[in-house]
Amino acid sequence: MKKSFLQSLGPGLLFAGAAIGVSHLVQSTRAGAEFGFGLIWALLLVHLFKYPFFQFGPRYAAATGETLLDGYRKLGKGVLIAYYILNFATMFTIQAAVTIVTAGLASQLFGFTNDLVLWSCLLLFISLLFLVVGKYKLLDNLMKYIIVILTISTIIAVSVALFSNKETFDVTQIIPSGAVELTFLIAFLGWMPAPLDVSIWHSIWSVEKDKTTVVKTKRKDAIFDFNIGFISTLFLGICFVLLGALVMYKSGETFSTKGGVFAQQLIKLYTNNLGEFSYIFIAIAAFTTMFSTTITTLDASPRAMNRTTKLLFNKDLKYGYWFWIIFLFIGTILILKYFMDNMGLLVKVATILSFLTAPFYAILNYKLITGKHTPGEHRPGIYLRILSITGIIFLIGFSVWFLMSNSNFSS
User: What's the pTM?
Assistant: First the structure.
């Protein structure tokens, strides 16, 4: 039984590794710093309503032995083309966003240069080596340690911040108003806990794990593994909101949009509470978190693009995965080199696009998991179906609200 449990862990932690990055270290901390405890409602709601659609990734993979992309192809070639275009349009910006934050943390931790583009090149190259040498297995094993290190360090930091706080907590929930606040809310929800297309990545990792272990993962084990990763993202999201609220809310300090300065402020959040002795420990924890996201995104997007290319053109490119990795590597460096000053805007566009496309992925995943392409015994029960439909309404409603609000602000 113990062996079975250990074997089932993997893709869920990779999901957590991909999710716990910019959305947590940057967006959640900033939400706490700017709104106090006021956006906890948004954090809980978005986790609740996105849950089914993320879960359908490993559920479908366990049921069919296929990725969600294979399922999308069965729903129609147009669906796959739409995904191909959307993923191509956002993957470079997403990779650039996570890499630049990682570079900022690396420059603070190791300090031999403040050139974030140089750091980004170095980190991407190291990530590439990890994937070349260790492939999926190393990625799988590495994530277990990273999530544990991050969780322990964050719990300690939040605990100390709570006990050292002398003020009474104001838990009044806030509905943002105004163009700037509303845009932040949508960006916050867009990548919390992750963009919905990460469900596709999860299904790819699930299929890859079955290939690596030569053991077919049961649905129960796949969902259990996913739940561990998902609960981790929710718990740590709340922790980072609390840190931002306890240390920076009403302090007069605001987070910088520059990677190096932001990294400094982020590490200071921890050291202010734990003491200077903890600097190295906390810096390493934050760095490894973002580094894990850099690696997982560098692995996942090329896998997804390679699989989509094969399904669309019915042709298996021998080195397709490596072609897309190198292509993503070069594209990311070009964005960081020539659009560094506009990174804040690029990230905002990517996060908003992630939220606005969430209903698209939600509807596709629901249609696929409840339809004829999924064996009957693997389809979700009535409660999960109700939650799914409610989630689709929530995602569409929020998107329409955002678009209408923005239209009113601009007119």
Answer: 0.88
